[in-house]
Amino acid sequence: MPFPVRLAGCAALLVALGSTACAPMKTHQGYVIDKELVDSVQPGVDTRESVLQTLGRPTLTSQFNQGEWYYVSRDSRNFGYSDPKVREQTTIRVRFDASGNVTAVDKMGKEMIASVDPYGKKTPTLGRKRSFFDDLFGNIGTVGAPGTGGAGAPGGSGQ
């Protein structure tokens, strides 16, 4: 093969490999929503057991009572190693009363996603501020000292 043909082939191969590295990656996380099944859950008709049979286990439940179940579905997209960007998110909230009957079924979109931005590189805390040397040498003389609960102290773990 002549040299210019090889060079053109190598250049085409490099362009093809370089362009595939920037191809978007699409991902789906969470619940796969079936519109007919979600629409079949009716307030006042369904119970916790019938929702479990129809929609399956929820993605998460409320922390303080068993009054709400959440089914979360999210589609994301990113290029290469960048952070994924949410393209679409649907959250279905099923509310129950004290006896386990469905009281409401709500659908929410990605407008309900909260954005939490970190504050600098350190988390501000209350209390005393320690320097690098305080952190490095702060425990010298306190390990095993009386009243610190160390292994050599009375009432420590060395008994």
TrEMBL record:
GO terms for molecular function: protein-macromolecule adaptor activity. Residues 1-21 form the signal peptide. InterPro entries: BamE, BamE-like, BamE_dom. One of its GO terms (cellular component) is Bam protein complex. Gene3D superfamilies: 3.30.1450.10. Keywords: Cell outer membrane, Membrane, Signal. Residues 30-105 form the Outer membrane protein assembly factor BamE domain. GO terms for biological process: Gram-negative-bacterium-type cell outer membrane assembly; protein insertion into membrane. This is Outer membrane protein assembly factor BamE. It comes from Sphingomonas naasensis.
